[in-house]
Specification:
This protein is α/β, with parallel strands linked by helices. It has ten helices and 23 strands. The chain is flat and about 65 Å long.
């Protein structure tokens, strides 16, 4: 394929989008809007679109910048998709992705939403999870996956979007991988709310017996906490103080921007004093805490028992329920307002059905996936009006975007 293709936009997954001579959209990773490129031979043709690989940049666009992370260029790291795009252009692309998805899939008449830019473009991640592959201790294969070879693992030296404190810990760990449980399958490093560092080592074999030895070896970091997680089992602390923090529970990887997002979402509910508010998929209770500050009576539901237990210890005023939201809705008190923050798959059909059949005055939907958000808004549009949508850049250098939609009963 020797045709020159003009890249006009960035798609939801971070690939550049252009048109082949036959009119089909072609998606090409590591390309930027405004540039003209030549494709490698072997373009994969589908009925209505195609996928190609970049062979040559014929004319670079103004949006292109030099990616600072060597892994991004040399190893084709799949953790980031947009390091080669200037940050202002990343924000434009994410606004367009959200707007186009809500119009196309959600059938909404809406402009591209406002986007709140990140506090930090780099070093914002409070956790990093690495795959392990390659023999005893996986010493030759603890790292990340290339975007074009998802079954391969390249050894990680540094991740430029991860907090310096975790990368300092990783530098200490790299030479001591034999002290981790064998055979290692996944390694996660995480910061908690108090800045303590956690190591979560997943293995399919014997328990982690050298955790205390490793902990003493890491520059005498007595706040370091080591967790062992058997494959398909529950993680437990094997060395270090047991603080109660659920290191395996879901939490936003960008805590500062996560708080900004949640605070704006809760503010859209208006006056909730003495009102019952559901916090569905509430996790460790960060949204519930903001609702309590505003005087609401909060019922928070999440399927993760450890997250719920941590939430109870922090927020005794909140009624926490450890269950799937779709299973307990009939037993909950009628709400004045509802906040939902589902995983990437969006709302369970039973949750959507309940919100449809018994509309609440205010509903705020916090989403990490524009496509499932659009699907769910389309399902809810019979009884709700979308009053506002705002995007938040929690994940600079990647194609991911957080979106908040504010709905009112029709």
């Amino acid at each position: 394929m020797s045709d020159v293709v003009a890249i006009t936009a960035i798609a939801a997954g971070g690939e550049g989008v252009g048109r082949l001579a036959d009119g089909r959209a072609v998606f090409v990773a590591r390309t930027a809007p405004g540039e003209r490129i030549r494709l490698r031979e072997g373009v994969k043709l589908h009925k209505s679109f195609a996928r190609g690989e970049l062979a040559e940049i014929v004319a670079p666009g103004a949006a292109r910048v030099t990616a600072p992370c060597p892994h991004y260029v040399q190893d084709h790291c799949g953790g980031c998709q947009l390091q080669h795009v200037a940050y202002d252009e990343q924000l434009k692309a994410k606004r367009a992705i959200v707007g186009e998805t809500l119009r196309r899939l959600g059938k909404l008449k809406i402009e591209d939403p406002e986007i709140v830019e990140a506090l930090d473009e780099w070093r914002y991640r409070s956790n990093i999870s690495m795959a392990a592959k390659g023999g005893e201790g996986a010493a030759k294969g603890v790292g990340l996956h290339p975007y074009d070879r998802p079954n391969f693992v390249f050894p990680l030296a540094d991740c430029h979007i991860t907090d310096f404190r975790l990368m300092a810990l990783w530098r200490e760990l790299r030479g001591r991988l034999v002290m981790l449980p064998q055979p290692l399958t996944r390694l996660t490093l995480r910061l908690d709310r108090d800045g303590r560092r956690h190591i979560i080592a997943e293995s399919a074999g014997e328990p982690w017996l050298r955790a205390e030895e490793l902990r003493r070896a890491i520059q005498q970091d007595f706040e370091l906490i080591c967790w062992w997680q058997p494959v398909d089992g529950a993680a437990r602390v094997v060395a270090g103080p047991a603080t109660g923090f659920p290191a395996t529970a879901f939490e936003q990887v960008n805590p500062g921007m996560g708080m900004i997002t949640r605070r704006w979402a809760v503010e859209q509910l208006g006056d909730v004093r003495s009102q019952t508010v559901w916090d569905l998929y509430g996790g460790i209770g960060d949204t519930a805490a903001l609702l309590v500050e505003r005087g609401a009576t909060v019922v928070s539901v999440d399927a993760d028992e450890k997250a719920v237990s941590w939430g109870r210890s922090r927020l005794p005023a909140v009624r926490f329920i450890a269950a799937r939201a779709e299973d307990v809705l009939p037993s909950l008190p009628m709400p004045h307002a509802v906040v939902v923050n589902p995983p990437r798959g969006g709302l369970h059909w039973d949750v959507s059905l309940r919100l449809q059949s018994e509309p609440v005055p205010k509903l705020v939907y916090i989403s990490c996936d524009p496509a499932t958000l659009a699907r769910d808004l389309h399902r809810l549009n019979v009884n709700y009006i979308v009053k506002d949508v705002r995007a938040f850049d929690l994940f600079p250098q990647t194609a991911h975007v957080e979106t908040v939609a504010v709905l009112e009963a029709a």
